[in-house]
Amino acid sequence: MGSAKFAVSSQTHVLLSDFTVKSRDVKEYSLNVDTDDLVLTFTPSGGSFAFVNAIEVISVPDSLISSSPPPRVVGASGAFQGSLSSHAFETIHRLNMGGSLVTPNNDTLTRTWQPDSGFLLEKNLAKTVSKIPSVNFVPGYATDETAPKTVYGTCTEMNSDQNPNAIFNVTWELDVDPGFQYFLRFHFCDIVSLSLNQLYFNLYIDSMLAVTDLDLSTYVDNTLAGAYSMDLVMPSPKSSNKMRVSIGPSTVHTDYPNAIVNGLEIMKMNNSRGQLSDGAFVPGGGGPSTKQKNVGLIVGATVGPLLALALLGACFVFFCKKRKRGQDGYSKTWMPFSITGTSVGSKGSRGTTLTSITTNANYRIPFAAVKDATNNFDESRNIGVGGFGKVYKGELNDGTRVAVKRGNPKSQQGLAEFRTEIEMLSQFRHRHLVSLIGYCDENNEMILVYEYMENGTVKGHLYGSGLPSLTWKQRLEICIGAARGLHYLHTGDSKPVIHRDVKSANILLDENFMAKVADFGLSKTGPELDQTHVSTAVKGSFGYLDPEYFRRQQLTEKSDVYSFGVVLFEVLCARPVIDPTLPREMVNLAEWAMKWQKKGQLDQIIDQSLRGNIRPDSLRKFAETAEKCLADYGVDRPSMGDVLWNLEYALQLQEAVVDGEPEDNSTNMIGDLPPQINNFSQGDTSVNVPGTAGRFEESSIDDLSGVSMSKVFSQLVKSEGR
């Protein structure tokens, strides 16, 4: 592969020329797409070949890189006069100042933020500050899509501890490609000042004064610790391959000599020829050989918000803005590549709702292909059975491993939920939602084909299956991933989608234990903007059901929040949410856990495998989050976005000890627990379906409209599975 030499271009820009892969290469570009397709063309140089390992296409808001307001120009008066929407950008550096690595799992747009320490010229002149809870996202300014809270909540600050009156700059030196203009985005959040108007500083680019007497409080409506981003453009092409960025105290306001920066993004801008690479070989320009072959790859530009296509060496990430007529925001619909492999992209309808299975033709898989994938539904490949039917492990012709759910004609779930599952999963693509590969409805079959999830369900790793126990960090990361998926469902479209069956059996784990929410058969589109709820028959699973929804038959996003709160306690205590074999006061996990939480003794009932491994403040934050989710009334519960933030904070509190030097006696951790309190029955009435897109429980509610509460609880043990 090292001998490959090729170019890559889009419809409007040359992204790479004379490119060779020296080792592991990840290239990230931001493109404005004003058509229905994003076409990527790989052109081998004469006598060579082109290849790629993976491509990710991520849809972003139009406002992420915008000419309104126009960015400042370094070394010149006035603002940038060109249109940023006509430019292509290559991300060269993305730094989390004063903080640690931020992975795609912890960024709304799946970006990676590197720590800045490796780029500081004199580390002794700088110090780091972390106050993530202090960050305020002020309406009209930066959002968590501009940069995550973990970036705005940390900063690199002047280290003036030894000499408060010293005047010096803190400088970073970064590698860049000469001959190009650069777009720089600085992220600021004053987390160091005790009050407004105490921080004034200067910003320098390559020794040029870029911004003078910067007072952050004036940019965010006089809000302390308000998140703010500032864009700059280097107007003249760089002549060297180094760029220096410096911050230093104001020479005018000298009462508080200090300077900070929270994050920095540096992006290369295309030149006048539309190129982001200065290689000699340009597609369509004749090149070294007249026998070149252009390999075109068409990727749907209406992707939203994430599409990952696994192809065959370098990895490319594209952040695409899809222009819509008179409207900013996300593109709504993506119809994935054909299952048969005849194409790698297709156009989706412009509607946001699918009304019939026939609108999802690109998902349809021939029955013969399903039979071939499962070896004619060989019982040796049967990995479980649920209310919908049997589940088989299979493999498509292209090697993709799948989980195949074949509907039972006698199933109570039937066509309605089959249709709902297809409609929901064909509208949304997200790294924390299980992917629908396709479906089959030939010969009156109801077959759903999902991506195969190697590590099964969260529930299977908590109790009843004999699978290895999860560490506390793993559990936190799994809860964070599931919360991200649910948050996307609630906020990713003009109308929220309510899952309605959130439980540990419907949170699946891939080979890396990344969580994905599954089983959308009961999902419901949320209320219109002028409504507060959706009136609907009660459906869900015992133990997870929102009592307010049960009483009033009024469904909101907060019903999912309640169910997720039960999942949080389930993850912490590693026991069934309903266990009739236990003493009466312990049967219902939510009630039992809330009792101990209100006594301030929740640590007495946590999973014994976690003892000695949880920091008290991490447990406290986690437990407080779960408690708020279980508030009696939906209006008192947090949004899923708030839940997500608190879980990320709980993880940071835990890692503050894990990443440091632990004490020998582990006094910072929750100690040994009295074994008799946590001696749960390991009986489990569910059917384990490891590695599938669902786990089917024999404790679900089908339709409880008009059923009394006493009758519900009389059926806890013998109810039929969904």
Automatic annotation (TrEMBL):
Transmembrane domains' residue ranges: 297-320
Compartments in which it is found: Membrane
CC per GO annotation: plasma membrane
One Pfam family matching this protein: PK_Tyr_Ser-Thr
Record-linked CDD domains: STKc_IRAK
Binding site for ATP: K405
Domain of life: Eukaryota
Gene Ontology molecular functions: ATP binding; protein kinase activity; protein serine/threonine kinase activity; transmembrane receptor protein tyrosine kinase activity
Keywords attached to this entry: ATP-binding, Glycoprotein, Kinase, Membrane, Nucleotide-binding, Serine/threonine-protein kinase, Signal, Transferase, Transmembrane, Transmembrane helix
Domain Protein kinase, chain residue ranges per copy: 377-650
Membrane topology annotation: Single-pass type I membrane protein
PANTHER family: OS07G0166700 PROTEIN (PTHR27003), RECEPTOR-LIKE PROTEIN KINASE HERK 1 (PTHR27003:SF426)
Protein name (database record): Protein kinase domain-containing protein
Native source species: Brassica campestris
